[in-house]
Amino acid sequence: MMLNSDTMELDLPPTHSETESGFSDCGGGAGADGAGPGGPGGGQARGPEPGEPGRKDLQHLSREERRRRRRATAKYRTAHATRERIRVEAFNLAFAELRKLLPTLPPDKKLSKIEILRLAICYISYLNHVLDV
């Protein structure tokens, strides 16, 4: 069995055997002689590939170790990097919009994120003071 980000059943104990799964109707179960994947001479149709742990190898791992291995896949890292890129772009866009609302001299002065936040705090305080007067 391959570990990837879509494999969530590894964290849960198995609830039924392969022969009860309903795949026997599709030819995936044991044949009339009982020598299919669920039969006495069966097993899985193919074993794990080299470097790919089998299900029994994963059962002794802790939940944290299974999660760590799942996160080590290239597919997971690519998806995570994409999500992070979108998050950072939204974060920077929010700062740019906040920056447009703050008065500075000169108006196009480049400010760091912390400067934008501090200036926004001061500006909000000033506006509250103006409203209170």
TrEMBL record:
Entry's InterPro entries? bHLH_dom, HLH_DNA-bd_sf, TAL-like
**Superkingdom of source:** Eukaryota
- One term of GO molecular function: RNA polymerase II cis-regulatory region sequence-specific DNA binding
Q: Where is the composition biased (Basic and acidic residues)?
A: 52-65
Q: Can you give the residue ranges of the BHLH domain? A: 75-127
Could you tell me the keywords of this UniProt record?
Developmental protein, Differentiation, DNA-binding, Nucleus, Transcription, Transcription regulation
- Establish whether keyword Protein biosynthesis is in the entry: no
Task: Name it.
Answer: Nescient helix-loop-helix 1
* Residue ranges, annotated region (Disordered): 1-79
Q: Which residues fall in a compositionally biased region of kind Gly residues?
A: 25-45
Q: Could you state one GO biological process linked to this protein?
A: cell differentiation
Which Gene3D superfamilies does this chain map to? Helix-loop-helix DNA-binding domain
User: Which PANTHER family does the record associate with it?
Assistant: HELIX-LOOP-HELIX PROTEIN 1, T-CELL ACUTE LYMPHOCYTIC LEUKEMIA/STEM CELL LEUKEMIA-RELATED
Output compositional bias ranges, type Basic residues.
66-79
